[in-house]
Specification:
Layout: H1 4-28, H2 36-49, H3 70-75, H4 77-80, H5 84-106, H6 110-128, H7 133-149, H8 153-164, H9 183-199, H10 207-223, H11 232-240, H12 246-263, H13 271-287, H14 297-310, H15 315-330, H16 338-343, H17 345-348, H18 350-367
Helix pairs in contact: 1-5, 1-6, 5-6, 5-7, 6-14, 6-15, 7-8, 7-14, 8-9, 12-13, 13-14, 13-18, 14-15, 14-18, 15-18
């Protein structure tokens, strides 16, 4: 018989790889304390404590502005207190562990390890941009889904609420409630949890100062509504001159996202159908996110990794996944000269287009009359 530790190592080797990558990237960037994102996150908590406008311009400290909620500035406190290099090593480690935990909770056993292997390079890409917040949001969406499956509405509300107060698009995870009973109860639970999260910064600041911070965040979000980032809206405008408001394209995407729920109620009881819908939500959160950047791809690509890992192998699925893998992590890696990655690839929209292709494949599978038998998910 094999030793118990060897069996655990066999099951959890991806976690060791993720943790090792965090340590290596930390050393690669000399402690990462010079990254602009890191400076913004670190100072957001200090500004909250001092009742200074979190969303103001501070060119002497960093460029750009903080764009997350006051609650997130408070939640970042444990990582802002230590020296910068240590704080962000801990933050990236927590992000890696949370990302790993979310995937293995959803897909225990070999399928989970396959998903983690496929998503690994996108996780590293986000980390190299000092933006593991995207991986954290992806993990929170997955954990909200798992909590719904386990009938833990409070935990699902907490995961969605924290995600929303980081980036607004985790609101799409509210659609998971459609599969489960006691929807009015969940609505009340979510409103209560969100209200508590909104109010919790009052522990370190005054109510009036906190109200001013929330108003400032609203102005910051409003100023970004016309942005298009790496979203589908950006490429519709660049290639076809389509100058529709972001909300109109996003609304069309939302209708397409929810269409399988309306037309295939007969499949709601199928766990594989529900997991497919989770993958669709993750991709939707990338494709139609008007603030999407290169590190945001980890959210959508995690959906691709989960879809492929939990689905039966066919030549078509393998070809589609391989195409997405080439277009997203491979072509945007160090294997391609940085000049091409910086000036040519973004204009081609390969990340958005490849993810949009996989999204349509998943939508077709959700709408299909027949259902495939998912891969076994036992450890």
């Amino acid at each position: 018989m094999r030793p118990a530790w060897l069996d655990r190592l066999r099951r959890h080797w991806p976690l060791l790889v993720y943790v090792a990558s965090v340590v290596l990237v930390t050393f690669q960037f000399g402690g990462r304390d010079a990254a602009n994102n890191i400076k913004i996150f670190r100072w957001s908590f200090q500004h909250l404590l001092r009742a200074q406008d979190i969303y103001g311009q501070y060119p002497g400290l960093y460029y750009d502005v903080f764009k997350y909620s006051p609650t997130w500035a408070l939640l970042f406190a444990p990582f802002a207190a230590p020296p910068a290099a240590i704080g962000f090593l801990l933050w990236d480690l927590c992000a890696a562990v949370l990302f790993y935990y979310a995937i293995v909770r959803l897909l225990p056993g070999p399928p989970g390890r396959v998903a983690l292997a496929i998503a690994f390079f996108e996780f590293v890409a986000a980390m190299q941009h000092a933006s593991t917040t995207n991986a954290v949001v992806a993990a929170l969406i997955i954990l909200a889904f798992v909590a719904f499956e386990e009938d833990r509405q409070g935990l699902a509300a907490l995961c969605i609420g924290v995600g929303v107060l980081m980036k607004l698009y985790p609101l799409a995870a509210l659609s998971f409630a459609a599969f489960h009973p006691r929807k009015p109860r969940f609505a009340l639970v979510f409103v209560g949890v969100l209200a508590g999260l909104i109010a919790v910064p009052v522990l370190v600041t005054t109510p009036s100062a906190l109200a001013a911070q929330w108003r400032s965040w609203g102005h910051t979000l409003a100023a970004d509504t016309a942005a298009s980032g790496w979203s589908l809206m950006s490429y519709l405008q660049q290639w076809f001159g389509v100058d529709w408001p972001n909300w109109s394209v996003q609304l069309g995407g939302m209708i397409m996202l929810l269409l399988p729920l309306a037309l295939r109620r007969d499949r709601w009881s199928d766990p594989h159908f529900r997991r497919l819908f989770l993958c669709s939500v993750l991709l939707y959160c990338l494709i139609f996110n008007h603030q999407a950047e290169r590190p945001s791809a980890v959210v959508g690509f995690t959906g691709i990794a989960l879809w492929y890992a939990m689905s039966p192998r066919t030549w078509f699925r393998t070809a589609v996944m391989a195409l997405a893998f080439i277009a997203v992590p491979l072509l945007h890696s160090s294997l391609v000269p940085w000049v091409i990655r910086l000036y040519i690839l973004p204009g081609l929209g390969l990340i958005t287009l490849s993810c949009f292709l996989v999204w349509w494949v998943i939508q077709a599978e959700l709408l299909a009359d027949s259902q495939s038998t998912p891969l076994e998910t036992t450890s």
